[in-house]
Structures are given as C-alpha cells and as structure tokens.
Specification:
globular, 16-stranded mixed sheet, 30 strands, 7 helices
C-alpha cells in the first residue's frame, strides 16, 4: 500500500526547480545577508528569495526570511527560506533545518511532525503551518487521500533521518493561503516560537535542484485547519470566556449563580449576568444559546433536569437585561455529558458546573481602559528566579508582541543556573491543563490590571474520532517526543512561547509564569 501511495503522489508532482518547466529565474549567487534574530522576521521586507546555490543535496544558501530555534534541541535551527502564494489560494512554505552543533547528528522528523493528528510512522514535515489571524485559525498542510500531508517525506524526498553537524536540509509544505490576501503572515512549527511578519511572495517558488513540490490541484485534498480559541476569565472565577474569532462562549460558574442543587439565581448572579447582557447588546447576531452543564457528581436523573432549569433561569434573567431588540434566546440542559475539564479534581468539577452563553462576537468589546505605564528592561520587570530540585532556575521574558487579529505572542527563556541537572515541571502544572489533550507549558496567565481580566493560553480545537473536540495548547508542547523539554542540564537555557488574546488598549500586562513572581511586561 505504501509503495502504491508513493507512486500516486509522485505522479502528481510538479517540478518547480527548473526554469524550463516553470519559467523560474536561473540560479543566482547566494546572499551574504545576516540572518534575522531568533523568532523574528527582518524589520524591512526582504527581496523575493533567490534560488539556492548549486551544490551538495540539501545545501540551501538562500537568505532567511525569519528563523527560530528548537526549544527541545538548541542546535536545531529553523529558517523560512521561501513563502509563496500560488494561484491566489495556495501557499508553498520552504524551511531550512540546520544542525548548528559540532558533533552530534540530529533527527528532524519527530520535531517537525504535527501532533494533533495520527500519522503512524513519523517521517513527514507535517507540522509546518501559518497563523490565519483574520480567520483565527491555525493552517496546516493539505491532506490527500491515503497520505498524511502535502509536505516533505523523509523517504520519498531522500532526506534521511538525521542532519549531520554543520549540515542542513530544506523541507516544504503546501497549504491554503491565509484569508484576506495578507502581505505577511506568522509561520508556525512544532519546533519553537512562531515567526511573525514573514513576507509572502506572489512570485513562483524557487527550490533546490531536484526538489519537487506537489500540486494541490492535481487531486482531491482535504484542508486541515485548527480553530484557535483564546480564553479569558474574571479574577473571582465567576466566569470564563472563549473567543474563536466568530463567537463568544461565556461560561458562568454555577457556584456563583446558584446555591447547591438549586436553580434560583443568587443576589450576586445579577452583576455577573449584567456583563454578559452588555456583550450580547454589542453583538451583531440575533441568536443566543444558553446551555446548562453539571459535573459528574450525582446521577443523570438529577443532573439533566437541574442543568435545564438553570439554563432556563439564566435565559429569563438575560431576556430582562438585554436592551437590544430582536434577540432570540434558547435554553437547553446537558447534565454532565459535555465536560470542558476532567472531573477527577475539585477544580475540574468546579469549572464543569456552569451555564454557557454563546453568541456572535461583539463588534465592540468593553470600553478602553486606562493604560498602565510601560515597563522597560531597566525596571527589572522582565526576569524572575526560582528553584527546581534544589537548583537555581532563572526566567527572562524576551517579548510580548502584538499580532494581527487581537492576538499576542509571549516568549520567555528558562535557564538552569545550578551545577546539576533539574526538571522544571511547573511549566505544565496549570490548573486548567486537564482541558488539553497533552501536557504543555500552559501554566501562564496575563492580567490586564486596568480591567482586572486574566488571559490564558490559546487552544487549538481539533475534531476527535468520537465526534467530540480535543484541545491542544497554542504553546510549547512538553509531551511525546518533547517530553524532556522541561529537563535542564547545568547552564542549559530554553525558549518557550504561548499565544494569547491581547486587550486592544493595554500597553502593559501582568505576566505570571509558573512559580516565578508576577512581572509587569510591556506590549510591543
């Protein structure tokens, strides 16, 4: 079967490396431009990437449009050397993977694979993607029938399993172009921090001699995207909000709204519902869904009707508070059948006892807040210290960058300053880690001091085989092949990242990373 699949895919390949086949420019001399800083694109738009210099297979000397470094393997450098929009609807991404070490050869397939879908044997660069800010989605390579992705295949493309010290290989992925025809985009990989502001060229892609890239129009392919949901919550745990760019889902705590086993709203419930009603008034949609949920305590005979009565009570209260005309509210109870969190902890159960109100995202959110003065490097607000297994651990925030679409990228470095190896597991010990499919560095919160709102790492929503939805953290993964990411040798330092929603008016946010002290960090 595998050999048949390879033959079918190979028959649909378009050779893009030769000038005669695609009218591409002839080979040019390599650029001597210095690479951009880690995790960033150049400040100015670079010229369209020139062809690679002829030489040994895999040696690509094109200038980098952006670069990042693997969190797990510091000697694995990833550079974007080509990002081309094809036919106005497809995107060809080419990445150069370099082993910057001086002795050890590195495997690359495990690090570049997409862990949000089963791939069987790991040999593809399936984790290359872009962040579509306008659609609030994470775009991955197309998937043809009976094949994981339109991307580099270790076997078919003759890339080998390892990258020798000082050597590089170039891999590709073919995926949908981001919506809105943007001039730049954020390139994402499973390896390290996302790379913002990478320029997109509308010229034909130029590749290494002999490299072939699949034509996405040659056969039926499936689009693979992950909806990016950004959660936030009130400090008093009264409600939490999930924003997917289209809808808002506000989960109101039943512990705040109701007494135990009751469906009568408490005195405090009105203040909580007033904020929700204000957001509904600002929404462009006419339909509001109110759903009641319970934890796993009790039986369905108790939980199902109780969750229905609670949803109906919230619907009635919101109807009186909403001032906009033409809004239709529907209520339904689901009992304990749709948990957002695991029911094996008290915190998980608390969060599952909720009434969720879902409606079209408001065009205008809460009124602008008064900005807090920005912190600078000199303020000493970007570093923290801690302990792990008796070893001193240092943390340094390297950036809190505003991205298009109301998103933000936080990057930070953690270093073992001791003389012995230590695990720093606190990065994944978040109270809501149980909502994710796998463990990740999700123990981070951003707080807007002016509005007293907390922001949590984004979640990638993936349809599951059982019809449910799995969530993956939009942050550094610390499971599977990256299980040792939280292990630090003496003097070892790693860079981590997370995606968040960022309030429009905030110039500074309070950042709490794991057990380190809270920092006041400027938004770039």
């Amino acid at each position: 079967m595998i050999s048949q699949v390879r033959t079918r895919i190979a028959s649909s390949l378009i050779v893009l490396a030769t000038a005669t086949a695609c009218g591409l420019p002839q080979q040019a001399a390599p650029s001597t431009a210095a690479p951009p800083p880690t995790g960033t694109a150049p400040a100015t738009t670079p010229p369209t990437a020139s062809p690679a210099t002829p030489g040994a297979p895999g040696q690509d000397t094109r200038p980098a449009l952006a670069q990042t470094v693997s969190t797990m393997t510091e000697s694995l450098k990833v550079e974007v050397v080509g990002l081309n929009r094809i036919k106005g609807k497809h995107l060809v991404a080419q990445l150069r993977l370099t082993n910057t070490g001086d002795g050890k050869h590195l495997p690359w397939t495990g690090e570049m694979g997409d862990n949000t879908r089963p791939l069987g044997q790991i040999r593809w660069a399936s984790g290359i993607g872009v962040l579509d800010a306008q659609a609030r989605s994470w775009i991955l390579p197309y998937q043809p029938a009976d094949f994981p992705c339109l991307c580099s295949d270790q076997d078919r493309d003759g890339l080998g399993y390892f990258i020798d010290a000082g050597e590089s290989i170039t891999v590709y992925a073919v995926l949908p172009a981001p919506s809105g025809n943007p001039a730049t985009t954020t390139v994402v990989t499973p390896v390290g921090p996302p790379m913002p502001d990478v320029p997109i060229s509308d010229d034909p892609p130029v590749t290494l001699p002999g490299m072939t890239i699949p034509d996405p129009d040659a056969e039926p392919v499936t689009t693979v995207t992950r909806r990016l949901v950004t959660p936030s919550e009130s400090p008093d745990n009264a409600e939490e909000t999930a924003d997917d760019g289209t809808d808002l889902r506000i989960s109101l705590s039943s512990d705040v709204l109701f007494a135990v086993d009751k469906a009568t709203l408490t005195a405090k419930a009105r203040a909580v519902l007033a904020r929700t009603a204000k957001l509904v008034d600002a929404s462009p949609g006419s339909r509001v869904q109110v759903d009641g949920h319970a934890d796993s305590s009790g039986t369905d005979a108790i939980n199902d009707p109780l969750s229905t009565r609670r949803a109906q009570a919230v619907r009635k209260a919101l109807t009186a508070l909403i001032t906009r005309q033409g809004v239709r509210l529907q209520a339904k109870g689901y009992g304990s059948h749709r948990p957002l969190y695991g029911n094996d902890t008290d915190e998980g159960k608390r969060r599952n006892r909720r009434v969720t109100v879902t409606f079209a995202k408001p065009q205008e959110q809460a009124s602008p807040a008064t900005s807090v003065p920005s912190a600078t490097q000199g303020d000493g607000e970007l570093t923290g210290t801690g302990k792990a297994a008796g070893q001193p651990i240092a943390m340094r925030v390297t950036g809190l960058r505003r991205l298009p679409g109301g998103l933000g990228l936080l990057t930070y470095r953690v270093k073992n300053e001791g003389d012995a190896e230590a695990w720093f597991n606190e990065l994944h010990q978040a109270r809501d880690w149980m909502s994710f499919k796998y463990q990740a560095a999700s123990n981070i919160t951003l707080t807007d001091a002016a509005t007293r709102r907390r922001y949590l790492p984004g979640r990638l929503q993936v349809p599951a085989d059982d019809g449910d939805t799995d969530s993956y953290c939009a942050c550094t993964d610390v499971s599977g092949v990256r299980l040792s990411t939280e292990k630090f040798g003496p003097g070892q330092e790693r860079e981590f990242w997370s995606l968040f929603a960022l309030p429009d008016a905030a110039s500074t946010l309070q950042v709490k990373i794991a057990t380190f002290r809270e920092l006041r960090v400027p938004v770039q």
